[in-house]
Write a structure and sequence with these properties.
This protein is an alpha/beta fold and 335 residues long. The protein is built from nine helices and 19 strands.
Length: 335
């Protein structure tokens, strides 16, 4: 595992979040200037926000149990717990335990643990240990592109809902399942009810056009490429009908050879229900619509919702950008 992945793992293990860009750059600079990982781990453990869960007030057993839960997503087995507690009682520092616990692992071991707990932490995999495709639980596959060019993970429909952490090497995900929690920046999510958490330290590509009711956290204007309109190709236009209504006759038919798609901002959508979206859309677009359209609006919670319009006039929720109003969404981010 590259040191950068281990730094990211310190954030995930101790702060339960992905690193911000400024923070990650700072710790990288510390590494580059000669500070070792154990010293950096000690600095992390000394952070005020870390103390409640990993501070000196915890017993050795509590500290190790919390590491198991945050890094591996499970309670410790008796043998593992005894080993790590023995290391602490024998004089090994908690900072060194954190480094050892998050050190590179064989890919097969990570996938076995993932299958047991439905918690796949790809940051723990040493790319050098990876020799070919590896299956996790049923429907979960870790794969590699050409040697040295990274890889990714695919999750099939029907797989039990789980947690997935993409890494800098295994950076691509394909998720057709429902109810997952996914940390990463480059993925296709075709399932429904998934929680997608983007890493603000890096740019992102996210395809949710064929999914439903997925929640996206960490959208970064200008850094997130969001595929939101299900179309086979052609052009996408982003229009604003919230102030001046759009005439439906000005929109190309969905059967046109241009395969033109539209995202139309309809303004406020109240409680974010299908009825509220339809009411706002009827004000934003005048006339009968026969085009490939996704409606975009801001709900009462300040979130941007994307709704697909179907041929029978019904609308269905594709995805929600949590904590981001439509006014903050950049048209150039939508594809």
């Amino acid at each position: 595992m590259a040191n950068n992945d281990q730094l990211s793992e310190f954030y995930l293990a101790l702060l339960q979040r992905d690193p911000d860009q400024a923070g990650l750059q700072y710790w990288r600079s510390q590494l580059n200037s000669g500070q070792n990982l154990t010293a950096i781990a000690q600095d992390f453990l000394a952070l005020p926000q870390v103390a409640p869960q990993f501070g000196p007030g915890l017993t050795a057993t509590q500290f190790v149990a919390d590491l198991y839960q945050s890094v591996l997503g499970r309670t410790p087995d008796s043998g593992g717990l005894a080993y790590w507690v023995g290391q602490l009682n024998g004089g090994v520092s908690r900072a060194q335990i954190l480094v050892d616990f998050t050190s590179p692992m064989d890919g097969a071991a990570v996938m076995r643990q993932g299958a047991a707990s439905n918690f796949y932490n790809l940051n723990l995999i040493d790319p050098a240990s990876f020799g070919g495709d590896l299956a996790g639980g049923t429907g979960v596959l870790l794969y590699q592109f050409d040697t040295g060019y990274g890889g990714g993970i695919s999750v099939d429909p029907g797989t039990p809902g789980g947690s997935y952490y993409l890494s800098s090497y295994f950076a691509v995900g394909g998720f057709a399942n429902n109810g997952d929690v996914i940390h990463g920046n480059n993925m296709t999510v075709n399932g429904s009810g998934n929680k997608i958490i983007l890493n603000p330290a890096n740019s992102a590509f996210l395809d949710v056009a064929w999914g439903a009711n997925n929640s996206i956290y960490g959208y970064m204007p200008g850094k997130t490429e969001l595929w939101i309109v299900a179309q086979s190709g052609g052009l996408l236009s982003v229009l604003d009908g919230s102030a001046t209504p759009i005439q439906a006759s000005s929109l190309n038919s969905s059967n046109a050879s241009t395969a033109q798609g539209y995202v139309i901002n309809v303004g406020g959508i109240g409680d974010g229900s299908a009825a509220s979206v339809t009411a706002a859309a009827n004000k934003a677009v005048i006339g009968s619509v026969n085009a490939n359209i996704v409606y975009m609006g801001t709900d009462s919670g300040g979130n941007t919702e994307f709704w697909a319009l179907h041929g029978n006039g019904d609308v269905t929720l594709i995805a929600t950008l949590i904590g981001v109003p439509a006014s903050k969404v950049m048209a150039t981010d939508l594809v």
